[in-house]
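Input (structure):
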């Protein structure tokens, strides 16, 4: 059953049903109708510059859930600030429209390798041609925001400066076309942008240039924005208005001569209109015969006395009428020019998008050159190979402090005899950089799929269709969820949805509960990722027992972050190497944090006693029961009846010798003997 027609959609798009916009689910139709209804109710009676709703095909963009967006800090940090986010680190755009488009691309990376390749070609061209890049950015920096100006004009909230913005935008388009025409062969995306820049009518820009004055007011109600000579009727009305003002000036001089009061002035305010003003000492003179026949008293103030005359009232009416007529004619001209702009809205919006696309492309090229990024290889394989990878945000922060960033490699590609990607189990101490390493690989994949160069020496990324990240600890008290519950909900979403093409980032699963509960959950999660999800994954943990899993899970690879102990302290080297860590150096980190010396000393004493126990037996015992999914019928098997030995043990445990008589003890012994197998 198709969704019912929406009244707002019918009014705005002149349709009775949304079926003409393509097959949409009821939920999609409701979302489109809600958006249109909101705009319609907030812009009552305005012409809405809305494009018809279009359905985005499933699988065309990388799926990123809200938890992953927050954990990776794509557009906002966990504190809610733009500074410190990925967008802030890579945004070198020079226009507001370009910045908006870059944020949009970060929110929806592509999954089509051909389209990504076209974007990379365009970025490569500007990365290799610094002169063209700098010239283009200079033109764009001075260009107006066409889309915003057109939107304001479309809903009746625009002013003369918005019309000028459209005019200047078309002029900037010609400058860009002229500059790009010097390049021999343009990549596909740049070529399409140039076609869009040619769409707006140049006659429209000329009309705006003829009609708009050089100096424009902010609001149309202020008037004075139409160029002299543009329309004869307006010029005639303005001349009448200005001539009347000259008459007022001549009248002031005549009144001063007739009365002999040199300081007489004719002034104007919004309450009294035009009036004659003299000082208090001359007020009595005008209020006595014969001058009182001409000058009519209006108002007495502390230092001035105000009068009017019949002649002044007549002139005031003429001036007011001329001024109102002039403003009315200007507003008519504004509405006419505004209608022309709205009629050309599709072409102007296409040019505005071309500006944004060129800005983003040139900005990513500048970023690549300035930060020494490299072009990634993006294809439809399951490869995930990064050499010399770096975290784009952390690297810039360290660079400002004059410190280097330690680059690391990561390879989650399938092995020669494997059909699915690898899982890296990353162990190492706190503060060593495990979370940074996890995030940087996720961000590199995301940047590659928006068409950007990436912070690495080499990068080969097979398309990632879903990106999951479970990093950090947070609660959700409003929904009644503890920190551990939030962690489990996010982990459940990953294990239930991740497929072969997904990239999963997991950090410290199971840390919000007891040691053995957490270890068990982390253990089972790794098995599920390996056997069921079969995705590419990075799994950081402090449960060193998990490293034993690599003996039975062929696609599990142990890696560790290198550290060095020096005179009782730990030195973090931030290098990721094959192998596993046997300790977390948590006490050393606590010492660096400033814990009292007595607390640190006591912690070392307790740790020494705990480490004396052989915890490896737990891992060895669990290894006999791996992999979890090798025998799927085990969980569904019928419970077996207890053995004879189990029955004897159970009966023996139920006896209480101190409470039994000799006879009862003898009977119990015979009963136990009867349970033994014959």
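Output (sequence):
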């Amino acid at each position: 059953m198709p969704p019912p027609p929406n009244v707002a959609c019918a009014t705005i798009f002149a349709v009775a049903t949304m079926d003409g916009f393509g097959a949409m689910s009821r939920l999609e139709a409701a979302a489109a109708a809600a958006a249109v209804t909101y705009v319609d109710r907030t812009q009552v009676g305005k012409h809405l510059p809305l494009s018809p709703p279009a359905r985005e095909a499933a699988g065309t963009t990388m799926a990123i859930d809200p938890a992953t967006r927050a954990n990776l800090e794509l557009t906002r940090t966990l504190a809610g600030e733009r500074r410190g986010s990925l967008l802030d680190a890579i945004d070198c755009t020079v226009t507001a429209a370009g910045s908006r488009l870059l944020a949009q691309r970060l929110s929806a990376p592509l999954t089509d390798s051909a389209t990504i390749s076209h974007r990379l070609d365009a970025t490569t061209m500007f990365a290799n041609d610094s002169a063209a890049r700098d010239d283009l950015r200079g033109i764009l920096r001075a260009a107006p925001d066409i889309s915003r100006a057109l939107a304001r004009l479309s809903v009746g909230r625009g002013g003369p400066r918005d019309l000028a913005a459209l005019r200047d935008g078309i002029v900037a388009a010609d400058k860009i076309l002229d500059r790009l025409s010097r390049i021999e062969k343009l990549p596909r995306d740049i070529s399409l942008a140039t076609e869009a820049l040619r769409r707006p009518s140049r006659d429209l820009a000329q009309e705006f240039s003829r009609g708009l004055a050089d100096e424009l007011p902010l609001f149309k109600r202020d008037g004075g924005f139409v160029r002299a000579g543009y329309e004869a009727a307006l010029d005639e009305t303005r001349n009448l208005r200005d001539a009347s003002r000259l008459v007022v000036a001549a009248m002031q001089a005549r009144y001063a001569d007739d009365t002999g009061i040199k300081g007489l002035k004719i002034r104007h305010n919004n309450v009294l209109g035009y009036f004659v003003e003299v000082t208090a000492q001359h007020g009595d003179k005008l209020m006595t015969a014969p001058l009182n026949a001409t000058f009519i008293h209006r108002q007495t103030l502390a230092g001035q006395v105000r009068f009017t005359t019949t002649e002044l009232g007549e002139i005031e009416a003429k001036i007011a009428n001329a001024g109102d007529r002039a403003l009315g004619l200007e507003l008519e001209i504004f509405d006419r020019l505004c209608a022309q702009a709205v009629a050309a809205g599709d072409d102007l919006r296409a040019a505005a998008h071309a500006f944004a696309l060129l800005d983003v492309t040139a900005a990513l090229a500048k970023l690549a050159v300035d930060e020494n990024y490299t072009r990634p290889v993006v294809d439809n394989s399951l490869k995930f190979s990064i050499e010399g990878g770096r975290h784009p945000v952390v690297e810039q922060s360290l660079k400002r402090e004059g410190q280097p960033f330690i680059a690391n490699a990561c390879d989650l590609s399938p092995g020669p005899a494997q059909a699915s990607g690898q899982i890296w189990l990353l162990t190492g101490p706190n503060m060593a950089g495990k979370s940074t390493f996890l995030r940087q690989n996720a961000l590199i994949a995301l940047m590659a799929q928006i068409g950007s160069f990436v912070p690495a020496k080499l990068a080969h990324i097979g398309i990632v269709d879903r990106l999951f990240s479970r990093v950090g600890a947070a609660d959700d008290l409003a929904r009644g969820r503890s920190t551990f519950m939030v962690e489990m909900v996010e982990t459940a979403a990953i294990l239930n949805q991740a497929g072969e093409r997904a990239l999963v980032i997991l950090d410290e699963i199971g840390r919000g509960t007891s040691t053995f509960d957490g270890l068990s959950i982390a253990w089972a999660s790794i098995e599920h990722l390996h056997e069921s999800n079969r995705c590419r994954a990075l799994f950081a943990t402090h449960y060193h027992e998990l490293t034993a899993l690599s003996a039975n899970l062929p696609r599990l690879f142990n890696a560790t972050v290198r550290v060095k102990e020096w005179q009782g302290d730990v030195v973090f080297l931030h290098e990721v190497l094959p192998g596993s860590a046997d300790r977390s150096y948590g006490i050393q980190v606590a010492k660096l944090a400033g814990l009292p010396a007595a607390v640190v000393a006591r912690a070392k004493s307790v740790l020494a006693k705990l480490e004396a126990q052989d915890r490896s037996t737990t891992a060895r015992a669990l290894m006999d029961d791996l992999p979890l999914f090798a025998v799927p019928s085990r969980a569904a098997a019928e419970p077996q009846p207890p053995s004879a030995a189990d029955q004897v043990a159970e009966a023996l445990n139920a006896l209480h010798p101190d409470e039994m008589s000799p006879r009862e003890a003898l009977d119990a012994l015979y009963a136990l003997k009867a349970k033994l197998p014959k």
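Notes: The chain has a mean pLDDT of 85. The chain is about 50% helix and 10% strand.
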